[in-house]
């Protein structure tokens, strides 16, 4: 079975976009830094590199002093398997067609969604966050593919609406793999899914290869054999995927991760 996602459509902020944001938030650099990190501590992003070539040390020092806690991330392709199911649920492991639950290492996945404004970062409440990904055997639900047909099945898909703090949380499993792609989870954030005027941001989440190797030694993943592609060989991951790797912590028999993303919506 060979499955390929569509080509990359989103990009990291270019120099002009970055400088526009820089002025909009009072010389605040918007890069992949978490709360309490300095520019030196943060991973170097393409956006940082683009700006540092033309920004003065004084500007960068000012930016470091007012660094926001939200994180601007690269947008990526939706891929061929998004289905707008409108399944409002936090636990997406079950197949609503028959009540079965997909096997795999548990994953508690939370999103902290913020909006970048003139005042910095504001929690974005009321946004719909959709999550979808394949099961431990590389199969998506409710789609037709040359290798399978799962039309009518509803596993590993769902959405949650962000609360007043901008948080949405899901219970799922560590995803499997399929030919042509590294291990990933798709997500989409929409402010008004029923309106063409609503804001939409789509991207993907990735995993540390060494951790994936450990997880895939367990059932049911181990029955699939050696995966065919790692992060560095994935052409979609190569376009900013380093900024989209989940930082997982052990959580009982599984893992937990919180992903922070800042959206520039104007």
DSSP summary, beta strand count: 11
The helical percent reads: 10-25%
- Biggest β-sheet strands, sense, barrel: 5 strands, mixed
Q: Beta-strand percentage?
A: 15-25%
Overall shape: it is globular
Structural class: alpha+beta
* Topology order in helix (H) and strand (E) letters: HHHEEEEEEEEEHEE
Q: How many distinct helices?
A: 4
- Mean pLDDT reading: 81
Computed over alpha carbons, the radius of gyration is 19 Å
- Span of the ends, CA to CA: 41 Å
Weakly predicted, low-confidence segments: 6-67
Describe this structure in words.
This protein is α+β, with helices and mostly antiparallel strands and 266 residues long. Helix content is 12%, strand content 24%. The protein contains 4 helices and 11 strands; from the N terminus they run αααβββββββββαββ. The strands form 3 sheets. Strands 1, 2, 7, 10 and 11 form a 5-stranded mixed β-sheet that branches. Strands 6-3-8-9 form a 4-stranded antiparallel β-sheet, with no helix packed on it.
